[in-house]
Design a protein that fits this description.
This protein is α/β, with parallel strands linked by helices. It has helices at about 10-20, 30-35, 40-60, 65-80, 140-145, 195-210; strands at about 5, 20-25, 90-100, 105-115, 120-125, 155-160, 165-170, 175-180, 185. The termini are far apart.
Length: about 210
């Protein structure tokens, strides 16, 4: 009998049991320092400072709902990363379905934001309201990433609640595995949106160079 569950309800345990997903033991599998090589201009830093200030102002009357997170934080980041222009293409609320090999389990959901280059899924973005822990969104984002039809290429993801940011990398060849970056947070004294944008720009640069 086929079981169908919503992506937002899936657990890491289910992904490990049903799809063989494992956390990579290789410390260099996702090394964000090697990706974030693009320096930021003063204009970019100024704009990111405004994004942080806008978010902090909204946090004075929490919670900030998911759509507000997309508008105030994610949208300017995608703009500064260059993902609104060719060769990239954006899709929102993209339906996804993944099925186990024995077709006993089906996971369905909708990706908040999907950044593509040609047929490559560059980045899957899952956003949550400000009082939602980003770690709770990891299984959901990984489920979407495992649905990438380009099984011979890695897929990257980002989960955020506007305040915290976590990047993910998943592959299905030669084995199904994933790793995550360190957690970036706007609570920290420095503006860690600088690092977030550097990683986004680095992923975009690598997608262009490798295709």
């Amino acid at each position: 009998m086929v079981r169908t569950i919503a992506a937002k309800e899936v657990t890491l345990g289910q992904l490990k049991q049903e799809f063989g997903l494992r956390q990579s033991p290789d410390p260099d599998f996702f090394l964000e320092r090697s990706i974030a090589q693009d320096s930021l201009t003063e204009t970019e830093q100024h704009l990111l400072d405004r994004v942080k200030a806008n978010f902090e102002a909204l946090m004075e009357d929490p919670p900030i709902l998911e759509n507000s997170v997309k508008m105030v934080v994610i949208s300017p980041l995608l703009d500064l990363a260059g993902f609104y222009r060719p060769p990239f293409r954006l899709e929102t609320e993209t339906s996804i379905e993944i099925t186990t090999e024995d077709e006993g389990l089906v996971i369905r959901g909708r990706i908040d934001v999907l950044v593509l280059k040609n047929r490559l899924w560059l980045l899957v973005i899952e956003s949550k309201r400000s009082d939602f822990s980003v770690t709770r969104a990891i299984p959901q984002a990984l489920a979407y990433m495992l649905g990438n039809p380009e099984i011979d290429r890695p897929t990257f993801g980002m989960v955020t609640n506007g305040n915290e940011f976590l990047f993910l990398k998943a592959t299905r060849q030669p084995v199904t595995q994933y790793a995550n970056s360190r957690l970036f947070s706007l609570v920290n004294p420095d503006n860690e949106l600088y690092s977030v944008l550097q990683i986004l720009k680095g992923l975009g640069r690598e997608a262009i160079e490798n295709n």
